[in-house]
Amino acid sequence: MKRAQTGQVSRIGPDPALHGHDTELRWVEAVLRHRLSLNSLGRPVSIRTKDDDTHPLVADGQHFPAVALSIPFADRTLNFLATYDDDRRLTFDLIGPCDRCGKPVPMEEINSLEDLGDHLLQARDGLGGSPRLRTSPAHADGCLARGN
Ligand SMILES: [Zn+2]
């Protein structure tokens, strides 16, 4: 209405930032803590959280990096990658060496403590693997595990 009457372009200003970058990382970390019920273990669990150098936050995305999280767990460190899946849902993959090229790639989708337990105990014959294993840009050039 205002533009029609005055000919002025309405001023909407820049898009508001959703939240700061550090806040985003802490939020992703909090989601992982919740999904894995880490706060119920009765002891503090430290998570190292940073931008991932290789993977985008969304498939085909260019602007935002995925989030890499490391959790010291018993005798090993579990490395996770946080990305948004096709339904725009935050999802976590356990990172492990590719069977073919050895590069660290998303191996298994782990979105609950039960998933993690199954994986650690190898209770099931694998959980089916991460759908991001095939598309990961982390594979070596020409790795056959990477699909097109
Ligand atoms: Zn590979």
Describe the overall structure.
With 148 residues, the chain is of the alpha+beta class. The chain has one domain (18-121). It contains three helices and five strands; from the N terminus they run ααβββββα. It has helices spanning 2-6, 21-35, 113-121, and strands at 48-56, 65-73, 76-84, 90-97, 104-109. β1 (48-56) and β2 form a beta hairpin. The chain is globular. The termini are far apart. The mean pLDDT is 86. Bound molecules: zinc ion (ZN).
Instruction: Estimate nothing, just give the exact number of structural domains.
Output: 1
Query: What is the residue-mean pLDDT, rounded to a whole number?
Result: 86
User: Ends: how far apart?
Assistant: 50 Å
Compounds present? zinc ion
Percent helix, as a range, is: 10-25%
Structural class by helix and strand composition: alpha+beta
**Based on DSSP secondary structure assignment, what is the total number of beta strands?**
5
Main β-sheet, spatial strand arrangement: 1-2-3-4-5
Largest sheet: 5 strands, antiparallel
Strand content: 25-35%
Shape: globular
Total of DSSP H or I helical runs spanning 4+ residues: 3
